[in-house]
Design brief:
alpha/beta; 4-stranded antiparallel β-sheet; 24 helices; about 60% helix; elongated; binds adenosine-5'-diphosphate
């Protein structure tokens, strides 16, 4: 079992909850308002009924004035109808405002993810944090979701308490007549204080016991998270289409089954939470319920004794029992909600740990010069780079200048730093040492969004959306149809396009449309190339552009590369050297550094160079 956590101090817990509420007030003020107004309405409405029915019962038990009785009944019915109407209207408003609450939460996290420095997004810690938040939310809504509920409950408890108190005060003030003999003890202040103390004690103990039970979730947050994670993984394995072949091939369903049936896992019948439920959690929970019943008993005894002794009429008995129960409900609601907010604090802390990840990347404001001749000069000046959290240099002392409008090939073995070089060029990361210059100015000084517009990159692990083909190519919903067609044609996708019944309107994959088309790895890559062409940026970068293509498709793409690229500056990353022969300039990476640079003919002539070695290694497959 993992180490148990401590609960947060009260002030810290409340600070975290308030921060959560403020976040929603700022983003979704109507939603928060609809929740609070509904709660106020729901909390106050019952008192109208309690008060009016007491008047009716008193009238029946007392003067029995028919006219007044009729009046009271009419008013009661009218109020009930108005309250029901108000509740329905408010309920609808609340429902509309709160529709898609899950999506609203996702929106908060997505916005953070979209705006985060790529370097942070790429960190394992960030992924861990996000996954923890999700797992916590899946288990009992811990985090933002629960916080919203807590404030509602808090508001409801306070109102219930105030309403209850206002109707209960007279219970303690109304006196038993002196003629009642021994019952006059009920009038004695010490007795009254004693009764109030007993009731308050029970009222306090019941939710305190319940909070104690719930606190086991917060105290075992790590086990809970791990259990939820495993549950999520094994429980959903069958739903994942992309692993369906592996699952069948290796019968991985047996592994799932073993986990799902394992009684010892976190939520299994012999697991941690089962033990806690059977043990302390269950005990505290049961004791809390028992205490609530004891309270009702004490309330009834006290109220009935006073009525029996003649302190008030029959009608008041129902009012007092109902309102005293409300007071107790209010107090216990208050205590349990405050306790719940404290229990939730450590989960909220995780949420804010994620939302508070700072953007450390320097954001310059310089405008990128828009050049119709696309003459952009890029220079790497003594650039070294270590990935965050890594001690090793992925790139070391890279110096390079590239000429505009040329085709540059970047070659080298796996792990030699080719992709890292591109990521630095596109400012997904900033160099650890040295600088990268665009037209003589450090790229950090440019406006980031404008700088990004200079590059079209087809990354090796690019992803397409299960949306329309046109939307994928244009990367927007209102894409330019002709430009999409032209880009697809240049990328060599025309033939496949003629098979697609709805043309560029055809959905890729079948996630959102049963007539969607599944594309092969090679076809997907062509679409990704078309997307890069559509963007029409001055630099086009293809990271292993042909890795997923068959040899015929590869030859076809390469024979047309010049046409595809046009007057852009093109950078190809490849470890198939034969594909790069046509490039004006080839840069050879090895262990994070540039070891050679030049045209194919001169590089291959240097028999001591890395390029010659790589060339020979690959050539043997073709020359035998
Ligand atoms: P190539 O593209 O030439 O195959 P990369 O640029 O991907 O090589 O990788 C260069 C080095 O950086 C390798 O040692 C690799 O393990 C390391 N590396 C790549 N990505 C990361 C990352 N996100 N975090 C830490 N190290 C990384």
């Amino acid at each position: 079992m993992e180490k148990r956590k401590k609960l947060k101090p009260w002030n810290e817990a409340m600070r975290l909850n308030h921060r959560g509420l403020k976040l929603f007030c700022k983003r979704y003020p109507q939603m928060v308002l609809s929740r609070f107004i509904s709660v106020i309405w729901t909390a106050l409405a019952p008192y109208v009924g309690i008060y009016l029915s007491a008047l009716i019962i008193d009238e029946i038990a007392g003067k029995r004035d028919m006219e007044r009785l009729q009046f009271l009944v009419t008013i009661t019915l009218l109020c009930a109808a108005l309250i029901a109407l108000g509740s329905a209207l408010l309920g609808k408003w609340r429902e509309t405002q709160n529709a898609g609450l899950g999506l609203k939460m996702l929106g908060i996290y997505s916005e953070k993810l979209f705006g985060m420095d790529y370097a942070d997004l790429d960190k394992t810690e960030t992924a861990e944090l996000l996954s923890t938040i999700r797992q916590n939310q899946n288990g009992n809504g811990w985090g933002l979701y629960r916080m919203l509920g807590s404030y509602e409950a808090l508001c409801s408890a306070v109102l219930t308490l105030l309403g209850g108190i206002s109707l209960t005060v007279s219970l303690f003030l109304s006196r038993v007549p002196e003629s009642a003999g021994a019952y006059t003890v009920l009038n004695h202040p010490i007795f009254v204080v004693l009764v109030i103390a007993v009731m308050l004690a029970i009222t306090y103990i019941a939710p305190a016991l319940s909070n104690k039970a719930v606190s086991y979730w917060a105290l075992n947050v790590d086990s809970h998270r791990l259990g939820n994670r495993m549950f999520g993984f094994f429980g959903r394995l069958g739903y994942q289409r992309e692993i369906a072949t592996d699952v069948r091939m290796y019968r991985q369903d047996r592994m799932c089954e073993k986990y799902n049936r394992d009684k010892n896992n976190t939520f299994g019948s012999n697991g941690l939470f089962a033990h806690l439920s059977l043990g302390p959690m269950g005990f505290y929970s049961a004791a809390s319920s028992a205490m609530s019943v004891v309270f009702t008993g004490v309330a009834y005894v006290f109220v009935c004794l006073k009525a029996w002794a003649g302190a008030f009429g029959l009608g008041a008995v129902t009012q007092y029992v109902a309102s005293i129960t409300k007071v107790s409900g209010g107090v216990s609601g208050l205590i349990s909600t405050l306790g719940d907010m404290r229990n939730n604090a450590s989960f909220l802390e995780t949420v804010f740990q994620f939302l508070d990840i700072p953007n450390n990347m320097y954001q310059g404001s310089l405008t990128v010069e828009k050049r119709s001749d696309r003459k952009y000069q890029v220079e790497f000046r003594n650039v070294s780079f270590k990935y965050p959290g890594s001690d090793n240099y992925a790139l070391r002392n890279v110096n390079m200048n590239f000429e505009i409008g040329k085709r540059l090939a970047v070659v080298g073995m796996n792990g030699s730093g080719k992709t890292t070089f591109i990521k630095l060029l596109c400012r997904l990361y900033d160099p650890t040492e040295g600088e990268i210059l665009l037209n003589g100015i450090d790229i950090r000084k440019y406006n980031y969004a404008e700088y990004m517009m200079l590059f079209s990159v087809v990354f090796q692990d690019f992803k397409l959306f299960a949306l329309k083909l046109g939307e994928n190519v244009g990367a927007r919903a209102d894409y330019d149809n002709d430009l999409v067609l032209e880009s697809l044609k240049k990328a060599g996708f025309s033939e496949k396009l003629t098979d697609m019944q709805s043309g560029v309107e055809t959905y890729l994959y079948k996630d959102y449309d049963k007539d969607g088309v599944n594309v092969s790895g090679g076809e997907a890559q062509k679409i990704a190339i078309a997307r890069a062409l559509y963007k029409n940026a001055p630099f086009i970068i293809l990271d292993e552009p042909t890795a997923a293509l068959d040899p015929v498709a590869e030859a076809e793409i390469y024979s047309r590369l010049n046409d595809i690229v046009g007057d852009r500056t093109a950078i190809y990353i490849s470890h198939r050297l034969s594909s790069c022969k046509f490039c004006d300039e080839i840069v050879v990476f090895h262990e994070g550094g540039v070891v050679q640079q030049g045209a194919h003919a001169s590089l291959v002539a240097d028999e001591n160079g890395k390029y010659f070695e790589l060339w020979q290694a690959q050539a043997q497959y073709y020359t035998e």
